[in-house]
Amino acid sequence: MTTKPVIKKRLDTQSSLIKIMKRRGLTLATAESITGGGLASAITDVSGASAVFLGSIVSYSDQSKTKFLGIPKRTLTKSTAVSETVARSMAEAARKEFGADYAISTTGVAGPGRAYGQKPGTVWIAIASKRETVTIELALSGDRDAIRKATIESALACLSRILTP
Amino acid sequence: MTTKPVIKKRLDTQSSLIKIMKRRGLTLATAESITGGGLASAITDVSGASAVFLGSIVSYSDQSKTKFLGIPKRTLTKSTAVSETVARSMAEAARKEFGADYAISTTGVAGPGRAYGQKPGTVWIAIASKRETVTIELALSGDRDAIRKATIESALACLSRILTP
Predict the structure, then answer these.
(1) Mind listing the pLDDT tens digit for each residue in A85-96?
(2) Chain B residue closest to A33 (CA)?
(3) Is B5 a residue whose pLDDT tops 90?
(4) What's B89's domain CATH number?
(5) pLDDT of residue A165
(6) What is the rounded average pLDDT of the residues A40-49?
(7) Pairing of strands A102-108, A133-139
(8) Which stretches of chain B sit within 8 Å of chain A by CB?
(9) Domain with A99 in it
């Protein structure tokens, strides 16, 4: 019973996002690390998403961040995968590679353990458009599942706010 | 209350899959259309998935199937995206591009409407390894959410069966 309103609310966010983007003729892509495909999955929960959503690169390894998103190895070594620099590069690369108007990226530590010297709940989101790239740092609490879900919800909420300021 | 056992069972499948693959030193990638990132998300629900799972190409448009998975435009025109041919090509390309031991692909019609001249619930799954590519056709019933969830569960169950015959 308690999870119902959350799921409903989440689907409402995606639905209105897709409606707005469709009306404006805008397209969307994602590049995901911490959310592992969950952001794309949330977007494509909505029937008709294909009018807006082009796809996602789920780059769960450093190698795939280099191969598919062109993030230099030295950047991953220097900044680590969980950084503003990498979040920004992921979103910009996804936008370019998919030829989308907007792209969202997610990178962070889902836990339970620390990674890249950072504690679970440390998350970076970036949203790239032709005009600019916005980055957001989150410090989330909760278990792995809660952190991943909150990242997805925050990413969708951020894009909504950018599109309807 | 009723969804609890299903979620638990699903997480069990992924956990044992990752345990088996980790023990054998095997890696996994996915290429997703109908599941829209949901298969990668289900796999990465498990903490420690990064030891096995390299990433996913969520190719939600025909263009992204061509760009990231090298599926020729004429194949998409001739066979359509929802076909054994395209499922097979997606899995083989994902395996090659990620350099993974195994790759799973999903393509189908989630609904509510028909697509590519086929009714909702028509799904193709392919699992590629170095040795062979196995394809599975599903005829699922239910709404969009049920069809996508059943596709994810079937894909995970098929790989489990291949790894532990």
Answers:
(1) 999 999 999 999
(2) B55
(3) no
(4) 3.90.950.20
(5) 80
(6) 96
(7) unpaired
(8) 30, 32, 35-41, 43-45, 47, 49-50, 53-61, 63-64, 67-68, 97-99, 110-113, 144-145, 148
(9) 4-163
